[in-house]
Design a protein that fits this description.
Length: about 200
């Protein structure tokens, strides 16, 4: 199991306070395998940035200017992850097969150049292995292009727009998350946008 092997190895060497693995899945998104992180669109600026690298990305002060230029949904994903280092996991054609997100070390020591060299050496074979596993899973899983009428819709984190259950990105380019309602309720009511939320519920 790639996830278990990577988790064990990274935790043993680096002792991160948080470790998340996101892998490419349906809907052109990266889905977290071991945490409750929201999906990350593979077409987002953050994913495109990671896809062009085969080395770890330090999210500290050196990358602060880059992070500030990301979309609100990308910055939300980073804040939610609690990551200080991102390791792109590239497939055989340099496509982004996944991302390894590491939190601060439990020792509170900063990641140094030697740590980055070790992570880079780990990332290459892990990316190839992950891409192979994902390809095998796609080959074994029957494709379904339809979802049930009561399937939960998708809701944009940026503008609150409610989209179909099969949507992958919002019209505004924002990140979508699972909504609490279907797109169409009982063939009569259609949810278009979240207006607000409070102690009594969501409008």
């Amino acid at each position: 199991d790639v996830q278990e092997a990577v988790t064990t190895a990274v935790e043993t060497v680096f002792h991160p306070s948080m470790l998340a693995i996101a892998a490419a899945g349906r809907g052109h998104q990266l889905h977290a395998l071991n945490t409750d992180l929201p999906p990350l669109s593979r077409g987002s600026a953050l994913a495109l940035l990671l896809g062009g690298k085969n080395t770890p990305v330090d999210l500290g002060e050196t990358s602060l200017a880059i992070v500030e230029r990301l979309s609100p949904s990308d910055r939300h994903w980073l804040r939610t992850s609690g990551a200080v280092v991102l390791l792109p996991l590239l497939g055989p054609s340099n496509e982004l097969a996944g991302v390894l997100a590491l939190g601060e070390k439990k020792s509170e020591l900063a990641y140094d150049m030697e740590d980055f060299r070790v992570l880079a050496a780990v990332g290459a074979p892990v990316g190839l292995a992950l891409a192979r596993v994902l390809a095998e899973a796609r080959a074994e899983t029957p494709r379904t292009d339809t979802v049930g009428p009561d399937a939960p819709a998708r809701e944009c984190l940026d503008c609150g727009t409610v989209a179909d259950a099969t949507a992958t990105t919002c019209v505004c380019g924002g990140l979508l998350q699972r909504a609490h309602v279907p797109r169409i309720l009982e063939d009569r009511l259609r949810f278009d946008r979240r207006i607000g939320a409070g102690g009594m519920g969501v409008v």
